[in-house]
Specification:
Length: about 170
């Protein structure tokens, strides 16, 4: 696995998600056609969805040897000041702690290893001149052998339910 923490990878995931082109946004993508957008390095990010309660089914081809990193549930705050960002991040702690139904399945079998990753305060993104804080339940899985797999993840919090499934073609 690449080095780093789920909190630091979560920050990188948000940068990836927020900087994807609006017309090729992997989070809004309902089919998987944009899963390769802005992918670089050892970690391949998979998107959750903004579709509350709607089952989203995507197909994505990923290179063998990549670690996929994805949110079962996540939340981000953006603010112009560190103080506001930190206050807003603290406000999502309780709803995130009350999350339910966190589940990850690979080829129909449950996977253990869902991990909560919270940024230690907020991080200043110099290039974007904004403060970012992130809280979420994440998972990383490394694919070392070519093949076809089904990865499904679900979770709920504060009236939002995520239900995402990927058919992953590992080449």
């Amino acid at each position: 696995m690449p080095t780093g923490t789920y909190a630091s990878w979560g920050t990188q995931w948000w940068i990836w998600a927020l900087t994807s082109p609006e017309d090729a946004d992997p989070v809004q993508d309902l089919t998987g056609q944009y899963c390769g957008v802005n992918q670089r390095g050892d970690i391949w990010f998979l998107a959750g969805t903004y579709e509350n309660g709607t089952a989203v089914r995507r197909t994505c081809t990923i290179p063998v040897g990549k670690t996929v990193f994805f949110p079962i549930l996540n939340y981000r705050v953006l603010a112009k000041s560190q103080e506001t960002c930190t206050q807003n991040l603290q406000a999502v702690t309780a709803p995130m702690e009350a999350a339910s139904g966190l589940s990850v399945r690979m080829d129909g079998e449950p996977l253990a290893g869902v991990t909560r990753g919270v940024t230690d305060g907020c991080v200043y993104l110099t290039s974007y001149r904004i403060w970012l804080g992130s809280d979420g339940y994440w998972m990383a899985v490394k694919f070392t052998i070519p093949g076809r797999h089904t990865l499904a993840f679900t979770g709920a919090m504060s009236g939002f339910r995520q239900d995402v499934s990927y058919t992953l073609v590992v080449k």
